[in-house]
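Quick one: structure tokens for this chain, please?
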Amino acid sequence: MGRGAVALGAILIAAGGGALGFAFTRKATGGMKPEQTTAMTEALVRLDGDLKSERGKVKERATSLATQLPVRSAVGGDKDTAKDALERGELNWQPTGSEIDEMGSIIDGKRVTFLVQPDGKSPADHAGTPESRIKLVGTDVMLLEVVNVEPPPVVTEGVPQGRPGYIAVSRTVSIKDALDRLAAAKIDGHFELMGDTVPIGSDVAAGVKSEARPLPSLPEAKIVVAIPEIKAQLPIAIVGAGAGAAGLGLIVMIIGLMMGSAAKKEVRKAAQTQPGMGPANRPSVRSIETKPSDSLPPVPAGGFGSGEASIAAPADIGPGTMIGRWEVIRRLGSGGMADVYLSRAKGEAGFEKLVAVKVMHPHLARNARAVEHFLDEARLAARIAHPNVVAIQDLGKIGNDFVIVMEYVEGVDLERLLASARAGQRPVPINVGLGILCRVCDGLTAAHTALAPDGTPLSVIHRDVKSANVLVSRQGGVKVVDFGIAKAATQTHMTVQGETKGTPSMMAPEQRVGEKVDVRADVYSTGAVGFEILSGHAVNLDLAALAHLGVENWPHLPPPSQLRPDLPIELDRILLGAMSFDR
């Protein structure tokens, strides 16, 4: 009766929690819509690319003109000299578009203009000294580059003749088209450059929250947009029903636990009256033994078995601690299920080998289901023999502690590598990024196509593909690790229907809501990892967190080639297609 009440309470709590989750992830009003986010990203990338390109062209043009011998000769003369050189065709000036080329000299400390092309154009306002300037003029951005021109060395009566001059090249770039596209997407704000602004739509109204988004290669320029307040639409009826169901479930569960506790007291009281059932004769919980599995790798000679003494408590494990025949060097990391230690095995004639030893947390070793989770990882990974998958070398039990011995990869996980690249603003080279991604795919393909001893497919699905589970060695090797929550057709332990395990930010939508998954869930997560590697931007695609955006335009990410213009455009379809909402 007590167990039934506990189960009913759990069901009511789960149902109430589900109703509350549904209510609180309902689509909200306000905020920037997906199509506005896309328009903003496109505008930033396009403006940044256009201005960066034009700025480089202006500088190159001015430098090129300043080194021409006819120009160097003309600046040492006067206006008539420059005009004659132009008419004779010695000054081969052919400005295009909005470009204005100007030549002149500094005479008695003042700027004197000799020549302006195209004829009739007004020269830019400058002092004739070297400078690079960018200025907002209406809906145009004016780019100016002024460089020095040294006249040819001419010596008269031992005294050098000629005076330095200058070349000034200016060009305007229209931003009206980009601003119009933002206005068409119903974005309010303004474009700002060096304190000057031009409005977008209705600009930012008083009291409305705004956000400034600078151009990546031009910190002097930014787009300031209004961010309307987000107001969630909570269905009150569903919130009330969910809270009520959860509260009732909690009460029922407490009653069930109390009933169960009372029943246990009666059982213990009755047991004490039976011979051979005193406290000294009760079986220890920590004496759990796992049944041998056909898929378990054999324990090598000199390995370990259940007869050995238990390992020291996790807090006491340090350099020099022995785990079976492996000596601990240092702790590599800790997760929700186990600690991992860098260790070494020593043999005859000075033989030494480094390994990674994974020790299950002692408190989980009392849980048969957790133990099966832990053993499943070794059983599955031991069947995947591939250079892009971390190899399992041993598996066993030391006293009451479960241990997996794995290949040690000297290097760093991909998550840290990408974080370092972003912090240093050093994008991963495209060929290197594609190489890493291809090797991740190779390792996962080996898992997806692995076979059992009888030749039947294991149908392994990793289910937690993310950059933290990809190791990159110092020698350039790439290996997929951590099959701790992998799923296979022949698994001893099977995940409960509706149970969600994995990393929400990289998880396929069907996996996030607890549906049955197949290899396409790994394809989705691999696409997200590829997006992070190649675009240089981190990804968070948690369906629950993004539910208010809806599924239209999923995955709500700009094409990678817009974030990084040197990427092949074909990658947009491959990566975003892998992350589509519809599996």
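Confidence is low (pLDDT under 50) at residues 155-160, 270-303, 490-500.
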